[in-house]
Every structure is written in C-alpha cells, then in structure tokens.
Specification:
Layout lengths: L1 H33 L3 E8 L2 E12 L4 E6 L10 E9 L5 E14 L4 E8 L23 E6 L2 H6 L11 E13 L11 E6 L11 E4 L4 E10 L5 E7 H10 L23 H25 L11 E8 L5 E7 H6 L1 E4 L6 E2 L10 E6 L2 E6 L6 E3 L2 E2 L6 E2 L6 E3 L2 E7 L2
Parallel strand pairs: 15-16
Antiparallel strand pairs: 1-2, 1-4, 2-3, 3-6, 4-5, 5-6, 7-8, 7-10, 8-9, 9-12, 10-11, 11-12, 13-14, 13-23, 15-17, 17-18, 18-21, 19-20, 19-22, 22-23
Helix pairs in contact: 1-4
GO molecular function: serine-type endopeptidase activity
Protein name: FHA domain-containing protein
GO biological process, one term: proteolysis
Length: 411
C-alpha cells in the first residue's frame, strides 16, 4: 500500500508541477504591479502596537500619498502611525521606504480609513506605486488575489526587519457579492457592499487590497467568518464602497471601468484532465490533513467535562506570569477573561475591562471574542473587531491592556 501511495503522490506532483509555470508567472506579474503600492501599517499605542495592511490610492505633491486601510487598524489611542514599503531600488536590489502617517478620515460604519503618508526616511527616494480602484463590483466566480502582511507568519518565524515588509499573496475566486448591515466597528446596521471570497487571509491582512487579474482593487480585506464546522469565509469591502467613502470625504478618484478577463490559473487546469489532476491533489491533501489531525489533535479535545483541557498563561503589567486551567464545560459556555474577580481568568491590570474577552470552544476549534472592551484586544499585534469571533491557535499571542496571554492544550 505504501509504495503505491508514494508512486501516486510522485505522479500527481509531477503533473501538478507541469501546471505551475503559467500560474506562477501570472501571480509574479500581478505581484510586481501591486507591491510598489502595498504598505504594512504599524500603529504605536500605549503599552504596545497594532499591525495591518493598506495601499496607496493617490500621489500628492511634496512626496506625499493618500493611503487606504481599515478603520479598526487605526482605532483607539494612538501615539504614532508608520507605514513601510519594500520597493525595487532604482539601481537594483530592494529598498525599505518608511513613511509617517496621519489619519485624515475614518468611517466606523464602513470600517475604512484614509491616511496621508509623508516620507520619514530620506535615504530612499523611490516613488511608491498607485493602485486603482475598480468602478464596478467583481462578479461571482471572478479570479482574485489577496495581498497583505499576516502577523501569524511573523510569529512563526524569526525574521529580519526588512522581511517584515515582504508581502504575502494568496489567490482564489469571488464566492458572491452582497449588501449587509452587519458590518463596521459600531455595528450600526449601515448598508455596506461586501465581497465574500476564498483567497485566504489572516490577522494582519486587515486593510489589504483584494485585486483582480488586471491589478485593479476590487475590495479591501476586512474580516474572516468562522463557521461552526471550521470552514472559513473571507470578506472584503467592495471597491464601490471605498469610492463612496473617498467621495464623501472630498476625494473623487478615477475608477477602472470594464471587465477584467484574465485568469490566475494556468490553461492546464481547463478540461477533464485538469479536473482529474486537481481532484487527486485534493484527495491527497485531505488524507494528509486527516493524518495530521489523528496524530496531533490540534484543539480537537472534545468538551472534556470538568477536566482541565486548556492552560491560559498570563504575563501581567509587572512582568510576572500566572497560569489558569480551563475545563471543557466552561469553554463550551464561554470563559470570560477580564479584571473582574468572577472572570474565569482574572487579571490584575488597570487597562483591562471587567469583562474584556471571551474564549469559547466550538466543534473542536477555539475562538476569541472581544466583549466591547475599553482598550481593545489584539491577536499577534492585530486589533480584533469587537463582538466578532476570531479563531486562535496555540501560537497566537493575545494582547489586552498591558498584559499578554497564550493558550496551550493540556495532555
């Protein structure tokens, strides 16, 4: 059985590799067009920082630029905002360009923000790229790519300062476009046009562009919806919503009109042969995932009854550590973390709300929900939208007030 499996794997990989050049070349060209206007947002706050993504929409005089990101990326008390770009130098090689930023406008209803960038590092004079917004919503099934800086990748790897500004790219298709009133930071039931897609994003991608195959921005990535079965849906504010926001703030920008007919997949994926190969790859991937689940378990610990199954490690404002064990029953109901003595995990931190956040175990996956705390919550440095469940892992670093917590599974 094992030799047969290995032969099948080798055959599929060989066929799959033969399909990669066209796809890789398409994505490479797309990255070359998008990256010069793609920046990583670093928001300095009292006692910490937050991270996000954004993109340039207009060049101004005196080496200044207009820049769009999510409102929740630049929410709360802010000491400074900086944006970094990794650019191709005029004489070759890569150049890191840093800009100071100020917020010109924010819409909590649309979860959009407009910043003005001014060059902070005069060593680099390389001009930034400008991304153009699509004038119409992306159609169902349209190929798209998500660009950004997922913080989960930084937490996983020890990387240099320059690598912090090297973007990540994923691709997929538009599942649907729709109007929703359950959007924005203030949950005000304001109607917003959004795009649901399957180009994977994580914390840190907030504010990053969702682009079509022609490089036009069709949306601003904003959130991840976690279904009860663990399936994720990725959401973005549509480009028409961004244009409406900018126009209301006095900035009317030219939009790209007409459809984009390019495809992010190579021609080898068209037809029955491509479907057979793709099916084989998916079957092998599913088998590998199943083996990992059986061997490693992840958060799949069941309810656990009254037996402790997770440990919450807290590092408080004074640098001291504390450990709290949570059982399956409390996690199934929702374990509150906060300053209250009645919280499942109680913190002695003046910046933490009495009921700051909730941890909940649902169908083997662990979720965090900020309970509309006063000073907010971050996951790997990225702000969490109040009231929205965010999936976390044992590698997640959760920031609240002046404290940090990590969660691990008990054997």
């Amino acid at each position: 059985m094992k030799p047969l499996f290995l032969r099948l794997l080798a055959t599929v990989l060989m066929l799959w590799t033969s399909l990669l050049p066209a796809t890789a070349e398409d994505l490479r060209r797309l990255a070359e067009a998008v990256n010069p206007g793609l920046g990583r947002v670093i928001v300095e706050k009292p006692g910490g920082f937050a991270l996000g993504t954004g993109f340039v929409v207009k060049a101004l005089e005196n080496d200044q630029y207009l820049f769009v990101t999510n409102a929740h990326v630049v929410a709360g008390k802010i000491e400074a905002i900086r944006v970094g770009f990794l650019l191709r130098g005029e004489l070759g090689g890569e150049v890191l360009a840093l800009f100071d930023a100020v917020a010109l406008a924010r819409s909590e209803k649309q979860d959009l923000a407009l910043l003005r960038l001014s060059r902070a590092d005069q060593q680099s004079q390389t001009a930034l790229g400008v991304l153009r917004l699509a004038g119409q919503d992306a159609g169902q099934g349209a190929s798209v790519a998500a660009f950004g800086f997922p913080g989960i990748a930084d937490a996983e790897n020890a990387i240099t300062e320059r690598e912090l500004f090297r973007s990540s790219l994923t691709s997929g298709v538009v599942s649907r476009t729709l109007e929703t009133t359950n959007w924005g930071i203030d949950q005000s039931h304001y109607p917003v046009q959004i795009i649901q897609h399957d180009a994977a994003i994580n914390t840190g991608n907030s504010g990053g562009p969702l682009v079509d195959t022609c490089g036009s921005v069709v949306g601003v990535n904003t959130s991840v919806v976690h279904g009860p079965s663990g399936r994720e849906v990725y959401q973005a504010s549509s480009s028409t919503e961004v244009l409406r926001f900018l126009s209301r703030e006095g900035y009317t920008l030219p939009a790209v009109t007409g459809s984009c007919s390019g495809a992010l997949v190579g021609p080898g994926l068209v037809g029955d042969q491509g479907l057979v190969i793709l099916s084989a790859v998916l079957i092998l991937a599913a088998a590998g995932a199943l083996l990992l689940i059986l061997r490693r378990g992840g958060w799949s610990v069941g309810r656990g009854g009254g037996r402790p199954i997770l440990a919450v490690s807290v590092i408080g404002p004074d640098g001291r550590g504390a450990l709290t064990r949570l059982d399956g029953r409390s996690l199934a109901r929702g374990a509150v973390v906060g300053r209250s003595s009645r919280a499942a995990v109680s913190l002695n931190d003046p910046k933490v709300s009495a009921r700051h956040l909730e941890l909940r175990l649902d169908n083997g996956a662990l979720y965090l929900r900020d309970l509309k705390s006063s000073n907010g919550t971050t996951i790997d440095g990225t702000p969490v939208m109040p009231g929205r469940a965010e999936r976390i892992s044992s590698k997640s670093v959760i920031g609240l007030g002046l404290s940090q917590i990590r969660i691990s599974k008990l054997d």
